[in-house]
């Protein structure tokens, strides 16, 4: 427990909702603006870029570190999700975060909330790609994100574009759903994918890749970047490029595409033009499920 104290002059780790709300109230009373970065921990440079931006653009930066059980439809995936709060706290402290909110699942949810299925209306955005593969996943994401927004009342919320569908759904929740108005003037800030020098999109799941698998996984981003050139070839159609990406990744031993879909960036529905299109891929690299995307 000693660890869950003020760990330096600036950053404080909070584990209860009431302490978080008290801290937020004091910030608001002092007229400070608040930026929130929701995370599930196992932080990497991608998260760090969100936090640095939140620190720069707000008086106070709150980072939540919570592996949200309600968004996992695979118990093994939840159990294997990497956790290292001490390393996360060190990183967050070194880049200027002010508060880390790291509750237990029991603190975050009642037993009923933990076990019941929340149903939100996302106008179909949750029915494609990740939503099709992971039923209930986005309900769990919105359950926790809306709770964090409620507790922190942030001016800005920071999310990475690697989870492009998640970002689209959060925008929808804030702007158009029945929750509009609930979160005041909250602005969602889209942050670009951060890649390793090799091109591999940064992800907490990369920690689960062996050195060899990490090398194999490079074919994912390489193929996505190649596909930008393929899309410019004379007569290239969306369907052709889509299939070419799937074939190129599947040709690499150790990789298996779950889906690759080129969709409209706003509706997430299949499109037959490269205008305003994004290609979203999910690939198994050994047992690890990786996602990435590319805008055309
Ligand atoms: O993107 C994530 O890490 C999670 O889905 C989020 C937004 C922190 C909610 O648990």
- Relevant CATH superfamily of the largest domain: HUPs
Spatial order of the strands forming the largest sheet = 1-4-3-2-5-6
SSE order, one letter for each helix or strand: EHEHEHHEHHHHEHEHHEEE
User: What is the level 1 CATH name of the largest domain?
Assistant: Alpha Beta
pLDDT under 50 segments (min length 5)?
Answer: 1-5
SS-based class: alpha/beta
CATH architecture of the largest domain: 3-Layer(aba) Sandwich
Structure summary, number of beta strands = 9
The total count of helices amounts to 11
Describe this structure in words.
The structure is a single chain. The protein has two domains: 2-191, HUPs (Rossmann fold, 3-Layer(aba) Sandwich), CATH 3.40.50.620; 204-295, Pantoate-beta-alanine ligase, C-terminal domain (Pantoate--beta-alanine Ligase, Chain: A,domain 2), CATH 3.30.1300. The chain contains eleven helices and nine strands. It has helices at residues 17-29, 45-57, 75-80, 85-94, 105-108, 111-115, 130-133, 137-152, 164-175, 211-232, 238-250, and strands at residues 12-14, 34-39, 60-65, 99-101, 156-160, 187-191, 255-264, 277-285, 288-295. It is globular, with a radius of gyration of 20 Å. The structure holds pantoate. Pantoate (PAF) binds next to strand 2 and helix 8.
């Amino acid at each position: 427990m000693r660890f869950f104290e003020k760990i330096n002059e600036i950053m404080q780790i909070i584990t209860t909702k009431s302490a978080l709300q008290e801290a937020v109230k004091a910030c608001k009373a002092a007229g400070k603006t608040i930026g929130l970065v929701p995370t599930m921990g196992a932080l990497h440079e991608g998260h760090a870029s969100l936090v640095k931006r939140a620190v720069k653009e707000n008086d106070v930066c709150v980072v939540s570190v919570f592996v949200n059980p309600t968004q996992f439809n695979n118990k093994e995936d939840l159990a294997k999700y990497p956790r290292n709060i001490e390393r996360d706290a060190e990183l967050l402290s070194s880049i200027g975060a002010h508060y880390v909110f790291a509750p237990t699942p029991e603190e975050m949810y009642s037993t009923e909330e933990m076990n019941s299925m929340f149903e939100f209306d996302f106008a179909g955005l949750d029915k494609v790609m990740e939503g099709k593969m992971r039923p209930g996943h986005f309900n769990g994401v919105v359950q926790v994100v809306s709770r964090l927004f409620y507790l922190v009342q942030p001016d800005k919320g920071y999310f990475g574009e690697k989870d492009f569908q998640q970002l689209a759904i959060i925008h929808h929740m804030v702007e158009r759903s029945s929750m509009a108005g609930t979160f005041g003037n909250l602005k969602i800030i889209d942050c670009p994918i951060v890649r390793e020098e090799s091109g591999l999109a940064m992800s907490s799941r990369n920690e689960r890749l062996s050195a060899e698998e990490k090398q194999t996984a490079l074919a994912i981003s390489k193929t996505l970047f190649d596909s930008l050139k393929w899309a410019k070839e004379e007569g290239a159609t969306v369907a052709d490029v889509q299939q070419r990406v799937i074939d190129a990744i599947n040709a690499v031993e150790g990789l298996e595409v779950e889906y690759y879909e080129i969709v409209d960036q706003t509706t997430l529905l299949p499109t037959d033009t490269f205008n305003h299109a994004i290609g979203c891929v999910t690939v198994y690299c050994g047992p690890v499920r990786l996602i990435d995307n590319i805008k055309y």
